[in-house]
Amino acid sequence: MTRKKHPLWQFHGGLTLAGKKAMSTATAIAKASLPAEVVIPLHQHIGEIGEVLVSVGDRVLKGQALTLPKAYVSAPVHASTSGTVTAIAEHPIPHPSGLSSLCVSIETDGKDEWIALDPVANFRDLDPGEIRNRVRHAGIVGLGGAAFPTAVKLNPGPVHKIETLILNGSECEPYISCDDMLMRERAIDVIHGAEIIAYALHAEKCLIAVEDNKPEAMAALEQALVASQCDRIEIVEIPSIYPAGGEKQLIKILTGKEVPSDGLPADIGLLVQNVGTAAAVYGAVVRGEPLISRIITVTGPGIEQPQNMEVLIGTPMADIIAQCGGYRPDAEKLIMGGPMMGFSLHSDQLPIIKGCNCLLVKTTADTALTTQTMPCIRCGECTKVCPASLLPQQLYWYASSKNFDVIQDYHLFDCIECGCCAYVCPSQIPLVQYYRFAKTEIWNQEREKQKSDHARIRHEFRAARLEREKQEREEALRKKKEMLARKKQAEAAKSTPTEDPKKAAIAAAMERVKAKKASSDAAPQNTDNLTPAQQKLIEDADKRRQLSGKE
Amino acid sequence: MSVLTAIVILAVIAALFGLLLGYASIRFHVEGDPVVDRIDALLPQTQCGQCSFAGCRPYAEAIAKGEAAINLCPPGGETTMLALADLLGVEPQPLDEEHAAEPEKTIVHIDEQTCIGCTLCIQACPVDAILGAAKQMHTIIESECTGCNLCIPPCPVDCIHIVPVKIVPDTWRWPLPENKNTAPMA
Question: What is the value of ipTM here, to two decimals?
Fold first, then answer.
């Protein structure tokens, strides 16, 4: 079959980088051996974590769901092999922070025993909703690195009609070759996955984009395409310019269209999936297998035997590195992802996660180059290479001065953190780190804002409630008083015509007091037969009394 | 004569504008004080009273009247002060030295073994973040706690402790890269 020449466009900037992929493509994809323990982080995707379905001590089978997603943007995780749950606790996860997150640890029993699967011979027997459900419950997320739940992407909603599905096989970052190897060895899975996704989206066309530095993958895909006789899929060779694999950049290359600044590709009728995700969708829909393993490139000058491996999710990185011959003596830095967009890890005692496409080991020689940061000389090289047409220098100023309002006016959030600007910077300023700093600070401010708005609502509600309760109490008191007054009135009205017994009793009592007082006013007693001395004392006392009375 | 005409004309115009303004003030009357609302929106709503006002809104009202400085909010820190300066168009005022650093986010935790169920903390909480009843154990609803610490003084058995908010991968922030050489050049 001769390839139709698909028209291509160019995106702004970009770099031509040395591929360095050959070092890991010499051997076929190796299957990593079963580890003694797998540690499966519950949060391996964008969105909420699911509800934990297992408890410590449970025996789990390979492919058994460990969590059940509750939120819409969520994905379950599955046991990647059979064994016993030994812990559900915080464990360090591969993240730039080096922090821990909730993980399920499973002691493997070596049997690798599958749970009962539910394969489907022909995916066209399922409707798109059922396909989405299968994809969701298989825990499939974008395997290019972002790990966004695929089922959510497969449901663009009624307002967006997806015309074209784009499969991203460009894999533009140096060193990484896992998609290349996948396309070479499992091209038919990719093609079938593309068919399923296009069917689920009612997409009329599907483009599979492969960079021109992967002729073997291209040939394998073409062969598989002929075999599958699918006419809506087209394989397109694109030039190897970094970052052609960026979603928006790839769209620009293939269609000439630009995704709106705060929009999604679905807004312009497009959807991009990684080739690895497509293969996983095929596995989930047709074979019924959840996402429990992935292909990882273990590479870099610091590793003895660079190669691609199919690894169970949750396998410790140290195990994988040992199976690749271990570190070389000058190994310095372990990076998850590629040299441009990856981040360095604090340890190799971390589990492999769904979004981990590459383990790169750098040597002292590599890292020694990037130490001395110099002041910005405003050369503008960064602006020339920025694939998102931003002004990296401006972003840098505003990030370093923490001017987070203005930096958003310069479209910080359109930055894809590709690292082109930092790569060309003659002053070796770690520009992307500044952008990451600014992004996480802005997200933090937004979280704080939401939290304070929430607190305000609760505080105002409480104040209103207290006020209402006070009024209710006052109202109740007033009613009680009124009732008493009415009762009194009623009684008074009842007693006026006849003689009130109470009043009569009071009057009688007062009479008695009066009489008593009158009798006590009588002349002093015991005044007969007094001695003259006693008489004198009495007279003196009377005199004093009179005097004090006068004063 | 011409002076009189001028006075009459001006008086008539003045009366007309007076009526227009009077009508406008009724027709376009705004409930509440929008400036207070906007200031209140910038405050962290911990209702902690560290500014010496009885909550965030009273402080916002005082700022709007010009009776309070903009640097009295320790939980908001420098960010809030700068945002207030920006909103009100005034010069930023430095915070006290002890509050100049970004405040560590905290919440409180009730030691349930010690709690006697007196409900005093519940009455003190400005955001209803404490759950409990008389002679029943009390607990903090962590997601609602603002870290104002107003519940601590009323507690008769000192069972409420301040704990820092745990940083998880989702709330972790990239640090600003350290370098002395790259101070912005003019």
Answer: 0.78
